[in-house]
Amino acid sequence: MGRGGSCLIFPAVLSLYLRHLFVTLDGMREDAAEDTATVLYHAFNFLCYFTSLFGAFLADSFLGKFRTIFYISCVYVVGQAVLSLGAVPGDRRGIPGMPQE
Asked: Among 7, 37, 48, 61, whose CB has the most other CB atoms within 10 angstroms?
């Protein structure tokens, strides 16, 4: 399928996934879930493009290519650590707000 196909599939899958999450976990109505999923999808897309422009500005104006990559990688590692630690259950009941079996 190549790069072109994945660029076409990604937005649809992300939007459907977000809508499913809101309907399943939050119990939203279908139309409200679709509206919220659309807003979050477009915000995510905007931030993807904006952060690359911000990184280019930072590299060209202040830090240079390699320092920018290093510092942004450090921020990325901290973010991944926060996500990982956030997935650890706080007590025996599991993660608050997640469906329990």
From this structure: 37
Tokens of 11: 């937005």
Rounded to two decimals, what is the model's pTM?
A: 0.55
**What is the dihedral angle through the alpha carbons of 24, 30, 31, 36, rounded to the nearest 10 degrees?**
10
Report the alpha-carbon distance of residue 10 to residue 35 in Å, rounded. 18
Q: Which of 47, 18, 46, 12 is nearest to 34 (CA)?
A: 18
SS3 60: helix
- CB neighbours of residue 59 within 10 Å: 17
